[in-house]
Amino acid sequence: MPTFDLFSIGHSNIAAERFLAMLQDAGVNAIADVRTMPFSRWSPWFSQKTLAARLAKAGISYAALGDTLGGRPRSEALYRDGVADYEAMAAQAEFRAALDRLTEAAARSRTCLMCAEREPLDCHRCLLVARRLAGRGLAVGHILYDGTIEPQAATEQRLLALDGEACDLFAAGQQERLAAAYRRRARAVAFRQKVPAPRGAAEDA
């Protein structure tokens, strides 16, 4: 098995006991919650207080980092046409400082990013955060729903395949194609602001 510096996981609707087992199988002892809103209506065991308490009993620390590493920015300047702009978010000083802290934490513990989406390619934890961590030289492994761990490079190959660009990552121009694939995927799955209904729409419905 490859050696990873840091992991990621999407809690989805995984049963609490199985979720803990998946973390323990990977040797994880610290969770970095990158949800902007750290609660779950459908799986309440993943709401912040309940989750933190359950993790603590298992010897796993918990930190909420959604204020700086979340996928739903507060600033209007970080949206483009109503869609969260991951490239603009990654350029923010607060985001880079949070990555610094996360990198330091990963050097001390077996840290795992956590968000809600099951599939890494549907989530900012992969398309925004893990991408930049990998760019700093960290080996990121995504813990998938079935418990297998997928290296970030393999996730990127899947991204290219979805984008119609499945080929050697070391080929000439491949990094440019990968960056374009990241942009298109982010545009497709990133958080969208709600557009207010036009006045009178309720009467017309």
Word description of this protein:
The protein starts with 5 loop residues before the first strand and ends with a helix. The strands form 2 sheets. It has a 6-stranded mixed sheet, sandwiched between helices. Strands 4-5 form a two-stranded antiparallel sheet. With 205 residues, the chain is of the alpha/beta class. The chain is built from 9 helices and 8 strands. It has a single domain, classed as Alpha-Beta Complex (Protein-Tyrosine Phosphatase, Chain A). The longest helix has 16 residues.
* Structural domains: how many: 1
The CATH architecture is Alpha-Beta Complex
Strand content: 5-15%
Helix content: 40-55%
Largest sheet: 6 strands, mixed
Structural class: alpha/beta
Sequence of secondary-structure elements: EHEHEHEEHHEHEEHHH
Distinct helical segment count: 9
* Terminal-residue CA separation: 56 Å
What is the global morphology? globular
Give me the side-by-side strand order of the main sheet. Answer: 3-2-6-1-7-8
Brief rundown of the structure:
With 205 residues, the chain is an alpha/beta fold. The protein has nine helices and eight strands. Helices cover 43% and strands 14% of the residues.
